[in-house]
C-alpha cells in the first residue's frame, strides 16, 4: 500500500484489529450462509425457506448501515491480508443477489 492510502486508512486500525482477532468466527459465519444457501431444503419443505432467509440477508446487506458495515469489513480484510474471508464475503454477496 502507498503511504497516502496508509495515512487515510490509519484510523481504521482498531476496527481492523477486532476483525483480525475474530477472523475464525467470520469465516464460520460466511461459510454457514453459503452452506445454508446450497442445502436442498425446497425438496424437504413445501415453502421456499431459503429464498425467504436469503432475501432477509440481502436486505440487511444492502441497507445503508449494512453497506457501510460491509465496506468497512472489506477494507479491514484487505488491510489484514485475509483473502479467504474477502472471497467468502464476495461469494455471499453473489449468492444473495442471485437466489
What is the residue-averaged pLDDT?
Answer: 88
Question: In what range is the share of β-strand residues?
Answer: under 5%
- The secondary-structure class comes to mainly alpha
What is the number of domains?
Answer: 1
Shape: elongated
Question: Helix amount, in percent?
Answer: over 70%
Please give the count of helices.
7
How many angstroms separate the termini? Answer: 36 Å
**Poorly predicted runs:** none
Rg over C-alpha atoms, rounded to the nearest angstrom: 16 Å
State the order of secondary-structure elements, H for helix, E for strand.
HHHHHHH
Largest sheet: none
Quantity of strands, as a count: 0
Quick recap of the structure?
The chain has 7 helices and no strands. With 99 residues, it is mainly alpha-helical. The chain is elongated and about 55 Å long.
Structure description:
The protein is mostly helical and 99 residues long. The chain has one domain (3-97). It has 7 helices and no strands. α3 (23-38) packs parallel to α7, α5 (49-62) crosses α6 (64-80) and α5 (49-62) crosses α7 (83-97). The longest helix has 17 residues, at 64-80. The chain is elongated. The termini are far apart.
Amino acid at each position: 500500500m502507498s503511504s497516502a492510502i496508509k495515512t487515510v486508512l490509519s484510523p481504521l486500525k482498531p476496527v481492523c484489529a477486532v476483525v483480525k482477532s475474530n477472523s475464525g468466527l467470520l469465516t464460520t459465519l460466511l461459510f454457514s450462509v453459503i452452506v445454508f444457501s446450497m442445502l436442498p431444503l425446497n425438496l424437504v419443505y413445501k415453502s421456499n425457506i431459503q429464498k425467504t432467509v436469503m432475501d432477509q440477508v440481502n436486505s440487511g446487506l444492502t441497507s445503508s448501515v449494512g453497506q457501510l458495515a460491509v465496506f468497512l469489513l472489506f477494507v479491514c480484510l484487505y488491510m489484514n491480508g485475509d483473502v479467504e474471508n474477502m472471497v467468502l464475503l464476495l461469494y455471499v454477496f453473489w449468492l444473495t443477489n442471485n437466489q
